Amino acid sequence: xxxxxxxxxxxxxxxxxxxxxxxxxxxxxxxxxxxxxxxxxxxxxxxxxxxxxxxxxxxxxxxxxxxxxxxxxxxxxxxxxxxxxxxxxxxxxxxxxxxxxxxxxxxx
Length: 108
Hints:
Layout: H1 10-23, H2 30-41, H3 45-59, H4 67-103
GO biological process, one term: DNA transposition
Organism: Sphingobium baderi
Pfam family, one: HTH_Tnp_1
């Protein structure tokens, strides 16, 4: 889970990214477009720039790991971690009960 809260709704993010793409040619550089649009929606330019880059990765225009794949990998890593912990607990319990069985007096 993210350590920061998302101040902007996904619709606002998507609209801001579209605005950058649509109006980028009206500015001398992409950064100038990002700065101008960021002021209008009330976020810092670096944040909007990250949204634009992430949108490009997700659409395949830029190299990188798409959000969907990154989320799936994160979920699988969490599952592996939990399964390893459960396996360790079962291993220790098995050893404990095996030792208890060996320590029990022999009866005929």
